[in-house]
Amino acid sequence: MTEAAVVRAHREEWARLVAVLTKRFGDLDVAEEAAAEAFATAVERWPVAGVPPNPGAWLTTTANRKAIDRLRRESRRDDKHGEALTVHDDDAPVGAIDDDRLRLVFTCCHPALAMDARVALTLRMVGGLTVPEVARAFLVAESAMGRRITRAKTKIKEARIPYRVPATEDLPARVSGVLAVLYLVFNEGYLATGPDTDPVRQDLTAEAIRLTRLIRELLPQDGEVTGLLASMLLTEARRPARVSATGELVTLAEQDRGAWNTDLIAEGHGLVRERLATGEPPGRYQLLAAINAVHTSARDIRDTDWSQILALYDHLARVDPSPIVALNRAVAVAELDGPEVALTIVDRLENTLSGYHAYHATRADLLRRLGRSGQSRAAYDRAIDLAGNTAETAHLTRRRDQLR
């Protein structure tokens, strides 16, 4: 029971705790270490003393003490406090919205950082993922990811990147990088890569949606902000049917659509219609939302309008000509033109997607449908080796074993 309380507190309090500590001490290293030490202390003390009535307040107090102790040990407390005032100047102009976690997101997503560093830092500092989990999300070695995150934090300190939400006039130039980060945070929650984590991490999907809502309050006319929110809502709506009672991933074709969240679907569809009514050319996230809207409009998989989905993917491929888009487009092609045509498209992506589990899983399914069991089994084996999600691994294993 105590262990569950610590896990729950980590999910609910990590981002807020790191944000509050960063605001006070102006140093991401201090904030991260103090937050981690506070949770380590909770693991030791809560089983003995009991879970405190207000875990968040207990963790904040403990983390503050840990941070101050570190600064004292290093005999640089005054210098650190000076840096804190530089990074977070209370007399500086307040951003368009005052939210500690949103400030932390914009700090982690500052354009002075490379995009991969922004995403990694946000997953670690805001999402609370461990370095190994972030490394798996990027398909890189844990040591390399640790160095990447450390360099990003050093860059923020050395460049004295301010800890605040940008002013209203500066938001449009900064928001695209934030959206890219939140998109990945949401995806990590919806299909968690950590083998020791829940297959679906609602804490991450909920936080990504919450922050995207806040950004939409800042930029209500930005089509891509609305599109990303709509896409998240329509994807999150399917979460209750995403994993079976036995812990196996349930594909879209097999999901119980009666279990989908109709409120989220209605809200997502409303946002998609709102953007369509503007007549403005849609961007990447608006097109993803439209694809999700088509899927969630079908009462049964057989009612899916695959022609419309393919047309939307064709448009998306022009806006975002990435191999991932091409892979997803091939799934729609398979439904309209058959698995053999789709397999030809997928095989062209081998050089760029050979390390991506979904490439091998898609290929395995197409080969299975073509009756090429031996090749399908080999593709499933490769997908299982690369997949980090426990529910997905269970699903792929069952499908592979059905070929015997």
Describe the structure concisely.
With 404 residues, this protein is mainly alpha-helical. It has helices spanning 2-25, 28-49, 55-73, 77-87, 100-108, 115-125, 131-138, 142-158, 171-190, 202-218, 223-236, 262-278, 284-297, 306-319, 323-337, 339-347, 350-353, 357-369, 373-386, 390-401. The chain has three domains: 1-75 and 100-165, no CATH class; 193-321, no CATH class; 326-403, Tetratricopeptide repeat domain (Serine Threonine Protein Phosphatase 5, Tetratricopeptide repeat, Alpha Horseshoe).
Task: Give a verbal description of the structure.
The protein is an all-alpha fold. The chain has three domains: 1-75 and 100-165, no CATH class; 193-321, no CATH class; 326-403, Serine Threonine Protein Phosphatase 5, Tetratricopeptide repeat (Alpha Horseshoe), CATH 1.25.40.10. 70% of the residues lie in helices and 0% in strands. The two termini are 42 Å apart. Residues 84-94 have low confidence and may be disordered.
